[in-house]
Amino acid sequence: MPPPRDPVADLKRIGFLLEAAQEPGYRVRAFRTAAATLAGLTAEELAERVRNGSLRELTGIGEVTERTILESLRGEEPVYLRRLESTGGRPLEEGAAELRAALRGDLHAHTLASDGGATIREMAETAIELGHEYLVISDHSPRLTVANGLSPERLRAQLDEIAALNTELAPFRILTGIEVDINEDGTLDQEPDLLSRLDVVVGSVHSALRMEPRAMTRRMVAALADPRLDVLGHITGRMKTRKRNRPESTFDAEIVFAAAARFDKAIEVNSRPERLDPPKRLLRLAIEAGCRVSIDSDAHAPGQLAWLGNGCERAFLCGVTPDRIVNALGAEALLEWTASHEA
């Protein structure tokens, strides 16, 4: 077991890096207050607080700062500190802009064919205006009737439409895809042979979101093990709007992210303002597990394709670098990656 670190020094370093990155003052103060509180304890008092689990009874120590202290005392570089060190104290705006500039396309967009508000052509032309090299059309699968999910026949017709548009819009590429429902048993809601024809398959949980955690974990791991799936979409299913506050689904994130890394699948950073999924604590965990990510708009209208900046901000704050982002790949490299899952 490694020797303990100095938790006061770690808390102060976090405060410094937050300030250097122009994070909100309340966040800086939280770590500096925790450091000052901890500095006032003797080694024996601190050890006793750790033993009886009463650190959070102290002024200025909450869930995040407590976790940081405990990691430091175990001799681990705190995850929060490691994430900040990876950003080098750079301002959020600068780091997010660098990630946005690295993106070559968007892997998650909907059209009038399911629950979107524009045609494939309109979405593609907007993607061209935004500087994309490609756009994946990922309308819903049959089971999601509330979103007019595509039957196999309708999806095949869409593939023909995309092929015709690609001839006209080249060198821009519309890539074929789907946001396929992940069934309760982890299977995918579309004909396997048809899924194999698609360029990119995003799989998402849209039903039974309150499933018991162990069952939800098995469901997601089974989907990740399916060679036809490439990206795990909006993983917690949370939704926050003025009228609706849907909580996160619960599952063993460490197991899910280990499976994603094992099968070389990407975790989606969903850029919709009401989703912003996964939460930052889970995105950091995914990066720690070695997962790839896909920063997607989940656009349902042309203007929403510009939402990628939301995801880039979160990705930068969690230590994501361009080499971990699958849609920072050119189209051919991206297709090589998706094809490798069925090889």
The fourth-level CATH homologous superfamily of the largest domain is: Metal-dependent hydrolases
Computed CA radius of gyration, to the nearest angstrom: 22 Å
For this structure, the CATH topology of the largest domain is TIM Barrel
Distance between the termini: 41 Å
CATH architecture of the largest domain: Alpha-Beta Barrel
Question: How many independent structural domains?
Answer: 2
| Percentage of residues in DSSP E strands | 5-15%
Overall geometric form: elongated
CATH C-level class of the largest domain: Alpha Beta
What structural class do the secondary elements suggest? alpha/beta
Largest sheet: 7 strands, parallel
* N to C succession of SSEs: HHHHHHEHEHEHEHEEEHEHEHH
* Quaternary organisation of the protein chains: single chain
Structure description:
The structure is a single chain. By secondary structure, the protein is α/β, with parallel strands linked by helices. It has two domains: about 5-85, DNA polymerase, domain 1 (Orthogonal Bundle), CATH 1.10.150.110; about 95-340, TIM Barrel. The chain has 14 helices and nine strands. The strands form two sheets. The chain has a seven-stranded parallel β-sheet. Helix 10 (about 215-225) links the parallel strand 4 (about 200-205) and strand 5 (about 230). Helix 1 (about 5-20) packs across helix 4, helix 1 (about 5-20) runs parallel beside helix 5 (about 80-85) and helix 6 crosses helix 13 (about 310-315). The protein is elongated and about 70 Å long.
